[in-house]
Each structure stands twice: as structure tokens, then as C-alpha cells.
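hey so u asked for the seq, here:
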Amino acid sequence: MKNKFCIGLIVLLGLLAPIVSRGQASTPVDLPPSNSEYLLLDKGLQYRITKSINSMYNFDFPTAEHDFTVIMYQYPYHPLPDFLMALGYWWRIEVDVTNTRYDNIFLQYLDRANAKAEKLLDQNPKNKEAAFFLAAGYGFQGRLHSERKSWTKAAFAAKNALKYMELSRGEEEFNPELLLGDALFNYFSVWIPEEYPLMRPVMALFPKGNKQLGLQQLETVASNAFYTRVEAQYFLFRLYGSLENRPYDALRISEYLHGKFPNNPYFHRSYARHLYTVGRWTESVRESLEILERIDAKQAGYESNSGRYAAFYIAEYNSRIGNRAEAKKYYLKTMAYGEESESQESGYYLHSLIQLGKMETEAKNKAQARKYFDLVKKYAKRKHPAHKEARDFIKKNKL
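ran it, C-alpha cells below
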């Protein structure tokens, strides 16, 4: 899993709070009647916005945002519509986290949601729903700041997320939503010291977690929550696929998510990846070819980062069946997509360079082969297996 330690530490600090203050605090906020009920628990509203939320996860952002704007008009005092707008921009970011074009508008919507939640909390300090949104808002701010390596801002968001997460407890009907934060804490508070022993003194300051309980809680949220269901499923297939060595469980979830949201490029490429991992290569190639077609058609959300994944699976399959020409074609595509997305340090990019170098060596094009291996040495850290393989191959073949 890319940046596993960073993600784990953020979760531990409370940055991945249940659902999911920069100059926006002055946004006009209308206050609700003091006796209003929690909007999150309004089953009628849940029914009305199910289609909107599904549209968002399916990357039909115009439909989703139109509906969220209507909710914003109906409930001008409430943080929910602003938070949902922010969530839509988060998924635009998630497809390629190196792309910063949506950062500002994402943070602006979170700031608006936080400002409204703070107004609600000022009116009623026991408002669990307001604390719920503040925990979530600061949580997502922390996720972005950590991706941007803005550690001071991430730490500030963590502190606030933890504070409001504690305030949001105590409302039993929120439990399926709140359980996501507990689940992630339980898992990563154990995983971090296992993988990074130097962190053990720090971890001793936190309550003891339980990885298996964390996974069970994620399954519960994935089955029973409304607002956090898809987010729980997202974390489950990442954990099962990368950390828990449960590839068939990862495939089960990613297959469901791709089936439900067929135009979500993140779920699409994850499904192709998990098909490849379990050896269902022809199906992985089918999905990968579709991803490349959607990129060529400029379908929303399909871009070079997804192309790098898809081209690699096709290249590997053709290499396995001995179709050298097609394998070379798609290794070159992997390389091109990797450079377009500035992912030259990724494993897929480096492995493609090695395979291209070997192909050119077999074709007696030693000068070209050496160029590929030199690129591996340029982009891979010296301790990376690809760097060692490139050095050994150059020495053995006198390139």
C-alpha cells in the first residue's frame, strides 16, 4: 500500500474520523430552530439523497452537486451539504493524490462545513451531530495535509479531530457511523508498532488496539452504516489486499464496488488489480483495456495514473503468454503513463523499465537497454530491489 506508514499514523491520530480555518469562518450561517432534530438521522433525507451520494461515488459529479446544492438551500445552517461537496472533491483527489488542482476548493468546502458545525455547537454544546461533522471535517483536512507532507497542519487537524471525535460519542443511533473511527484506530494502533518498532514508545501513550476487532468493526460499518459505508468498504479492500494477505476478500469488495459504481476509476483499477493478483488474468486484461479506452475517451476521472496500472497488467499478461510485441507495447505505455503522472518511483514503472531493458538486450540493442537500466538506477533508491536487479544485470551482460 502506497505510503502505508503515513496513512496508518494519520488514522491513529484520528485524522480518518467518522464520515469520511482558512478565512471561511466569516461565512454567513443561518441557525436552525433550537429544537431541531439531527439531520443525519432523518430517514426521509437519507432516502432522498441516496441517489445523489451514489452519483458522487460513480463520478457523476454534476448530478450529485446539483442535489447537494438543493439540500444546501433547504438547510442553509447545516454542515452536511458542504461536507458532501467536499467529499466529492476528495474522490477527485483520491484518483491521483499527486494532483493538487482540487486542494483549495476541497479545503474551502470543509472550512464552510466546519464553520456551520461550530455555530451549531455554540448554540448547543451537547450537539453530537455538530461534533460529528467537526471530527470528520478536521479528519479529512488531515488526510490531505499528510498527503502534501504538511505535517504541522496535519498535526493541528489531528488534535482537533480527536477532540471532536470524543465529543461526538454517546448518541447510540450514530454508532454505525462513529464505529469507522474506532475500527481504524483499533487496526493501525497495533499495525504501526509491529511494522515500525521505533514507534513503540510513542504508541505506548495510546490505548491498546485490536487488529482483528478493527477488521470486524469495518465489516460492521460496511454492512450497516449509511454515510460511512462506502468509505469502510474502501479501507477494507485496501487492508485485505495489501496488509492482510486476503486477496480474495479484497476482490470480493472491489468487485462489488465496481459493479455498483462502474464509472469510479479508483474502484475500476482496484478491481483490475485484484483480478490480476488472484490469477484471473484474462478478466484483468479485459477491465484494463476498458480503462485505457476510457482514458482515450477522456471519461471523467480516468487519467494517466489509472493508465499506468492498466497498461502494466496487460503487459504482464502478454509477457506470460509469450507475446513479446504486445508486452513491449504495453510496458512502453506503462512507462509513458508513469512519466505523465510523475510516478517514476512506483514499482510498476521500475519493473517495466527492467523488462524493456531485458527485451532490448535480447534484441542486441545494448545501448538502448543500458538507457532503461540507467533510468531504473536514477529513480529507484539504492536499497530498492529494482536498483539491485538493474546493477546486477548491467554487470552480468556487460552493458
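The chain has a mean pLDDT of 86. The first helix runs from residue 4 to 13.
lmk if thats what u needed
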